[in-house]
Please model this.
Amino acid sequence: MNIYEFQKQLFEKGKQYGFSEMEVFYSSNKSTTVSVRNEEVVDYKIAEVLGLSFRGMYMDKLGYSYSENISEESVDYILKEALENAQVIEAQDDEELFESIERYGSVNAYAEILANLPVETMIESALQMEKTALQADDRVKQVLECNVSKSVYEVAIINTRGLNCHSKSSSANAVVYVMASEGDQAATGFYYDFTLTDFARLDVNHIAKTAVAEAVSKLGAVSLPSGSYPIIFRYDTATTLLSALVSNLSGENVEKGLSKLQHKLNEKIAGSKIDIFEDPLMVGAPGATTFDAEGFPTRKTTLIKSGTLLSFLHNRKTAKKFGAQSTGNASKHSYRSTIAVGPHNVYLKPGRRSVDELVQSSEEGIFIIELHGTHAGINSVSGDFSLYAGGFLIENGNLTKPVNQITVSGNIFDLMNNVDELANDLKIRGNITAPSIKVNRLDISGQ
Amino acid sequence: MLSQVLIEKMLNAALETGGDFAEVFVEDKTNSTLNMVGGVLEKAVAGRDFGIGVRILKGSFCVYAYTNDFTEENLIKVARSAAQGIRGKKQDMVLNLLKSEKINVHNIEIPNYGVGKKEKVEWLRRAHIAAKEYDPVITQTNMTYSDSIQHVLIANTDGILVEDTRSRNMMNFLAVASSGSNMETGYLNPGFFGGLEHIQNLDIESHAKEVARSAKTILNADFAPSGKFPVIIDNAFGGVLFHEACGHGLEATCVADNASVFSGKLGEYIASPLVSAYDDGTISNKWGSENVDDEGMPSQRNVLIEKGILKGYMIDKIGSRKMGMAPTGSARRESYRYSPTSRMTNTFIAAGDSKPEDIISNTEFGVFAKYMGGGSVNPATGEYNFSVSEGYMIRDGKLEEPIKGAALIGDGMDTLKKIDMVGDNLDYGCGLCGATSGNIPVTVGQPMLRVSELTVGGR
Model:
């Protein structure tokens, strides 16, 4: 059934159920992924997923429900569940639906050429990527994962207050994960890249070589004596740590007492080198969008300026509680979720020098390129972390030997106060991105 | 869910280009979640997942397609477009679907919809009150109740046609303890494969008090020390050690491609002779149990390790083709959005002979890990990590001050070989395991164990 027909039917019947206001959030994602192994396609996946979430106002409470079954037989299920949910909600939020506004920014996120990318091209590229990886170094024994995918994502939000917004975006990416071995030691390397505009811009040879270089460079790794060392976190591991900080910037977490930054607005919470922005209108950012999950227009927000906390991320509900304006950060992980708060494109402002220069100017330290166990090893509330890490020992400005079987521990808030320097290697890769950062001593546990 | 005629049409369309096996997976699942923060019901959401997946194999090449548009016209189109991924000639294959009797080995007394939302909200309120009243240091609570009923239909060209109903429910208890700018959390999440009788019989107050006690203990704890120590891991969710250090490496997903440190090691000693381990999807009403796996094969009890010797792997259909070994009822997937692969169900280390108090009193100096967070592993190298949320120092055979924030890291096989005491108190914990085929409910379990030496990362 056509989504707009379904929505009309839903709203009409919803009135009979007693809903005074109603909204649907619809999304669809169409993607194709090909994986290759040993010069053959081993996996080919075609995905078409769509679903609709409903929220309806009943006696001043918003009840939520959703369905992937968009047919007449779901109408009563959706309305009945939303009604029952509205009846048990106790939060006094005065949550209400957003009216339409005239002006939204613009991000050009849809590329016809990507949406129509032929599967043959994807297969050829994946095969090429595997070949390059296997030829790049004798020590690469296996390409564990090698795939290319493309997807088209659409969202529409329609409500009884006149809101009707729609967006469409596309992307393609290439992923490679290799294993190298020497003697009885094995090491893995991973790299991926994406494009939002033109598949020809994806350099699969570069992706393959980067993953191989990483795997090979880790061979011969040893643990280190426990102690405290200066640390450079490469961009990807720095991003992991930044994510823990960003969850404390969520107005929702602050309101629920799950943020250490509660009551810290306009206070200095990080070193003066730290500037953090949310920029949902940035061209080329994967998370770029002109409206949030409530249909509220997005805009650039300065969250932290020279270490001073200037703003939390808000949706309309949390903003109201803080007497602030929504920052356009209503998020909905998918149609299955209720409205929450989340980043679109939060980034840590980069510095001037390259990460190589940061290494060269370090007498000693550890360059960390992998962190594991982050879902449990970082306490996002307290900011304490203790994580499995791997990387390289730095001696007199050189990366001397690979290191594994160590843990690095500290506190994310302390760390943000102790940043010595930020590198210039910021490349926006997701909803949260950091450049490489160099910090004062942290505790390492090893031998 | 779908007529047998339509399923046969889809399977035939899927085989048009030379596939040697095709499968249809239909899922209709209703979910409901209630979330209470600080005693106030903040979120209530319910919904219905509905989708259909088609899988076509040729040897170990797999094409998978799925859709939520279940009109006949679209389903045939999806099956055909998936078939385009296979470029061969149609083989002779006679389709003969044999509908199996419902296999239901798990008792479900009260269905998830058999209790109103208001009563479910009261469960959360009881949890909140018990945690909040435990101690003034408890500043926040976050309690969630969720349930789901998943109906699946699995049909394939081997002749299988199975329908199954998976009913699950879970409560998540979380308490936050604060003092000054310090904040720590304690959590537990008991869950069941079965009906609501399990939640009704659950001692909600004692679970709530336990997470409050844990949060308070961690709040007052010191950071763990760094270095190598004997480590005692408590029973139940401590089994996440085995899940990470070894379980993932025994899944055909990586074993078949020689991408596991356990590949080619059947019959060899890979663990201390004190260790026997199983993956058993048949245990009555356990969170990770299933009647049939997601390829339609009955769940079974699989011996993984017997007295230290590697006895078996967890194998799905593709793994079975690659390895030349029979599947073990281990194919699992989060939903129709994932092609199935070999995964764990209820994985545990069997009980040993030692009394828990003897394990502690026999340890002169070390770390006792009471509660674990989660962890992860790189099956290719065997390197794993997991975090200790609540721990204690052991001195002269006695539990001393609490510690927090420790990461335990190591190499799977090395750790299994260093297990030198195994308790007699096997118990289980629940979790969600994320891997190639999505997030699936799993149970981990073990008795109390001692590892003679492990790297503890504290500060």
